[in-house]
Design a protein that fits this description.
It comes from Pseudarthrobacter humi. This protein is mainly alpha-helical. The protein is 77% helix and 0% strand.
């Protein structure tokens, strides 16, 4: 059911990924789906998380700035080509309108995404590539804020030039002078 839902996320807009569509695609009844997930939101959320967690894995190269760039490029791929933009937008709207779902969204997906970025940045701090006093929580907010602003507000592309500019902005804001000179 998760794989069928993930496939539908790739092909359809968020509102079109219905329990009926998942039942047809997976060959199970709606009651079977509801035995495993209490709502459409929960099913889509789990399928989206499963799919994008696999697509955004970044190996540790020893260079936090390059790992950040790679992570953001993988995220951009998910949003542009893997059907995630409509899903993320829909999940965020659902989280705004449903307090219970908002807790699930913030406590799992949002926390996981922040942790993925934090791991990259902390490794960079340990290697001396990112300033020890840098506020990593605010850096993560700024990075995701820029991505979500483009996704939800401006509609501008989340593409390679944007990722390069965002990574360069982060580089100037949180990295050490040594790391900046190595990145050029």
């Amino acid at each position: 059911m998760l794989l069928a839902t993930a496939d539908l996320i790739d092909r359809l807009s968020y509102p079109s990924v219905t329990i009926d569509a998942v039942a047809r695609a997976s060959g199970v009844s709606k009651s079977t789906i509801y035995r495993h997930w209490p709502s459409r939101q929960a099913l889509i959320f789990e399928a989206y998380t499963y799919k994008t967690n696999k697509l955004t894995i970044v190996p540790d190269t020893g260079n936090a700035i390059e790992d950040l760039r790679t992570y953001l490029m993988k995220l951009a791929y998910c949003l542009n080509f893997a059907g995630a933009a409509s899903t993320v937008s829909g999940l965020i709207v659902d989280a705004i309108n449903d307090d219970e779902f908002a807790q699930l969204y913030r406590g799992t997906l949002l926390q996981e995404r922040r942790k993925s970025l934090l791991v990259i940045l902390v490794k960079g701090q340990r290697r001396g590539q990112i300033r020890k006093e840098a506020d990593l929580g605010t850096a993560i907010d700024a990075i995701y804020g820029a991505v979500h602003h483009r996704l939800l507000v401006s509609g501008q592309r989340i593409d390679e030039p944007f990722v390069a500019a965002l990574t360069d902005l982060a580089l100037r804001g949180i990295s050490t002078a040594h790391a900046q000179s190595r990145a050029k």
